[in-house]
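Task: sequence design from structure.
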C-alpha cells in the first residue's frame, strides 16, 4: 500500500487517519476489499484510504469517517455516512459508466 502527501503529520490528520483505519478494520470483517493507497488531499483537508472498488474512506480534520463514491466520468463526488449506501452508489456509477463506454 502506498502512502502519499504526508510530509509531516499534524494532530487532526493523524486522528483522522486513525479513524479511517478503524473503519477499514470493521469493513474487512464483512467485505472482500483491498486498500490501494493512503493519502492526504491538501486542497480539501481530507485524509483517506482508497479502496480497490473505487470507494474512499475519508476523514476531514480528524472528524467522523465518511465514505466517498466517485463518478469516474464526471469527477462528481458523493459522500455517505455508511459504507453500504456508498457501495450501492458506486456500483450504480460504475454500471452507468460501463454502459456509456
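Answer:
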Amino acid at each position: 500500500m502506498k502512502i502519499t502527501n504526508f510530509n509531516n503529520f499534524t494532530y487532526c490528520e493523524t486522528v483522522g487517519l486513525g479513524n479511517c483505519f478503524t473503519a477499514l478494520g470493521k469493513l474487512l470483517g464483512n467485505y472482500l476489499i483491498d486498500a490501494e493507497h493512503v493519502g492526504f488531499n491538501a486542497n480539501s483537508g481530507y485524509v483517506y484510504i482508497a479502496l480497490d472498488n473505487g470507494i474512499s474512506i475519508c476523514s476531514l480534520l480528524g472528524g467522523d469517517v465518511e465514505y466517498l463514491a466517485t463518478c469516474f466520468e464526471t469527477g462528481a463526488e458523493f459522500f455517505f455516512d455508511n459504507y453500504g449506501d456508498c457501495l450501492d452508489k458506486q456500483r450504480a456509477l460504475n454500471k452507468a459508466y460501463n454502459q456509456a463506454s
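DSSP finds two helices and six strands in the chain.
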